[in-house]
């Protein structure tokens, strides 16, 4: 892995870990987002685990300088945010949470996944 890909992988991991921590006691913008896409409140805890495990996987890949681990996890993160886009569109919840948070995280995830996949392939 190159230094740039390691840094970007750590950035994505840090953002996901921060999101997971914030979600323990969700601020208004997270609550609005999850409610806006009709995600059941009883399942909000699952997203905390998904994001925390993804952050740990990204850190593991970066620490080991293993692009295949980083690529696999970052593709999973990208998939998560692609499904988040679908949820927003389906619920017609297209306010600032969609444009800033959802699309912003999708863009960061796509960048990291693209770099890591390219390095894993060779």
UniProtKB/TrEMBL annotation:
It comes from the Bacteria. Keywords: Membrane, Transmembrane, Transmembrane helix. Its main location: membrane. Pfam families: DoxX_2 (PF13564). The chain crosses the membrane at residues 6-22, 43-63, 69-86, 98-118. InterPro entries: DoxX. It is found in: Membrane. It is a multi-pass membrane protein. This is DoxX family protein.
């Amino acid at each position: 892995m190159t230094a740039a890909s390691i840094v970007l992988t750590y950035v994505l991991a840090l953002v996901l870990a921060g999101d997971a921590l914030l979600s323990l006691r969700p601020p208004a913008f997270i609550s609005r987002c999850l409610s806006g896409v009709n995600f059941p409140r009883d399942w909000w805890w699952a997203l905390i685990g998904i994001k925390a495990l993804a952050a740990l996987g990204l850190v593991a890949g970066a620490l080991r300088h293993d692009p295949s681990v980083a690529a696999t996890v970052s593709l999973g993160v990208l998939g998560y945010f692609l499904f988040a886009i679908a949820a927003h569109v389906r619920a017609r919840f297209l306010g600032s949470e969609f444009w800033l948070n959802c699309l912003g995280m999708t863009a960061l995830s796509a960048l990291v996944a693209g770099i890591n996949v390219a390095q894993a392939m060779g």
